[in-house]
# Entry
Amino acid sequence: MNPIENPQVLPASFFTGRPTTTIAADLLGKLLLYNSPAGQVGGYIVEAEAYLGTLDPGAHAFAGRHGKANDPLYGAPGTVYIYAIRGFYAFDVVTQAADEPQGILIRAIQPAIGEDLMLRNRPRGGFELTSGPGKLMQAFGIHDTAMNYQPLTESNLKICRDFAKTPATIQQGERIGVRIGKDWQDNFRYVVKGNPYVSKIRKRETDLENDGWLN
DNA sequence: CCGATGATGCGCT
DNA sequence: GCGCATCATCGGG
# Structure
C-alpha cells in the first residue's frame, strides 16, 4: 500500500459515548498511520487492550492515581498517551470524557505502509517487526513522549476512518503483563483471531491463509 | 517451538 | 531505590 496523503480520521466522538471495551474491539482492523520525519509508516490494528480507569486495578489511573506521567489519560477522548515501560515506549488512545481516565493500549499491527522504513527502524525479520507495543513503537521510530496530549485528529499519529479491514473473529482474553488480584475478572484484551502479528500467539494458532480477515 | 528468565531505562502513576 | 500495560535470549522438549 502506498502512503496516504490526507486520510479521513476517526473523530473524537468515536472514542466516547460507549464502553471502552466496545471501542477497543471496534479498533481492530483500523489503519494506524504515523507520518514520521523519515516517511509514512502504518498498519492494521490487530490487538488492543481496554484499561478502565480508577476502578481497574490494572490501569495506570487505578484508585485515582494522577501524576505527570499519566496526566494525558485525563484528557479528551482521542488524546495520545505515550508512556515509558522498561526502556520501551507504548501508545494508548484516551477514551471517554475528560477526567474519566480510560484508554486503549494499541499492542500490535499488521504492517501495511512503509514496511521498508519500519525494518530499518527495527531490523527484526518476520512477524517480530510489530508484534507487541514496544516493538510497534520501535518500528515507527518513536522513542519519546513528545506526542503526548495531541488529539489524534491533529497529530502525525492517526487512525483512519476508511481503508479498514474486517476481522473474521474477534478473540477476547486476559490482558498481557497485568498482575492483579484474582477477584478482578480480566477479559479486556481483544485480538484478530489467527493474525500472525498478534503478540504471544502460538505458531499453530496462526491463520496464514487470510491473516484472520474477511477482506 | 514454547515457556521461563534476566536485562533494561525511565519516572516515581 | 524500586516498580513496571516489555523484549530478547536461552535451553528443554
Q: What stands out?
A: Residues 12-205 of chain A form a domain with the 3-methyladenine DNA Glycosylase; Chain A fold (CATH 3.10.300.10). The two ends of chain A are 15 Å apart (CA to CA). Chain A has three helices and eight strands. Residues 49, 51, 58-60, 83-88, 90, 92, 105, 107, 124, 128, 132-135, 175-178, 199 of chain A lie near DNA strand C (CB under 10 Å from a C1').
